[in-house]
Design a protein that fits this description.
Length: 248
């Protein structure tokens, strides 16, 4: 199959030579793809702008020995410009594509692809605070990858709630009987926010107090950094105010 088409979201790009670029994409059907886009750094390039980070494109590629070659690219979701124009959205999107890059292997995942595209679309439309969109994305992405956190029943014993001890290494809230000494405690409101972020219950998330959203955001960051072996470099640049959804 020397020539193939797929829908893909651009995760990152690297310069190659004087005019070309290596594009890393997460595709709908072919997993993660690294391909060369020839001549896209020239001003006369017809599809260079369609192959920027955060863009979703219908691409046609030719199979190469080490890297495939992009021969066509048609825009499906032009989210890049809207995201890049807002710092909070840009830093959140950068953390999202870095997560997708780290959490998916070459075989990819349709669920991860659809989740990422939905998250970038939401950011570009400013549907919610950018930090809340990021937190929801991170929890869902980790869940799809097999690290589903528990914010209700004990992650170790399965004992029903309520629990307040949260232990990242054990997978979420745990009963007092198995909680290590000195385990951090979360109040019920923060746990409700975390559960709502995972479920996409935006009315609950946005009705919560700033303090609860802020504490939930810190939990999401810790949980993400623990499960991604090398952590997320981009997470340190995320706008913390927007991340917590604080409006003033």
């Amino acid at each position: 199959m020397p020539l193939y088409r797929d829908e893909a979201v651009v995760l990152r790009t690297h310069k190659l030579g004087e005019a070309d670029r290596i594009v890393t994409m997460l595709s709908r059907q072919h997993g993660k793809i690294r391909a060369v886009a020839k001549g896209v750094r020239r001003t006369a390039s017809k599809f260079g702008s369609r192959l920027e980070p955060f863009m979703v494109a219908d691409v046609q590629l030719y199979e190469g020995r080490s890297l495939d070659i992009i021969t066509q690219a048609e825009s499906v979701g032009a989210y890049g410009a809207e995201i890049a124009s807002d710092y909070s959205s840009y830093t959140a999107a950068t953390a999202m594509v870095e997560t997708a890059d780290k959490i998916t292997d070459d075989s990819g995942s349709l669920q991860q692809y659809l989740l990422l595209v939905g998250g970038l679309r939401s950011l570009s439309r400013h549907e919610h605070a950018s930090g809340l969109i990021l937190d929801s994305y991170l929890l869902r992405s980790l869940s799809i990858a097999g690290w589903d956190p528990s914010f209700v029943d004990c992650a170790v014993t399965g004992v029903p709630c309520p629990h307040s001890a949260f232990v990242v290494q054990l997978g979420g809230v745990v009963a007092d009987a198995v909680a290590p000494p000195g385990s951090p405690r979360l109040d019920a409101g923060t746990l409700d926010v975390l559960a709502a972020l995972l479920a996409g219950d935006w009315s609950t998330v946005e009705a919560a107090a700033d303090r609860e959203r802020g504490q939930a955001s810190g939990v999401v960051a810790a949980y993400t950094q623990f499960h991604l072996e090398r952590g997320l470099r981009s997470l340190q640049h995320v706008d913390r105010t927007a991340r917590a959804g604080v409006t003033g």
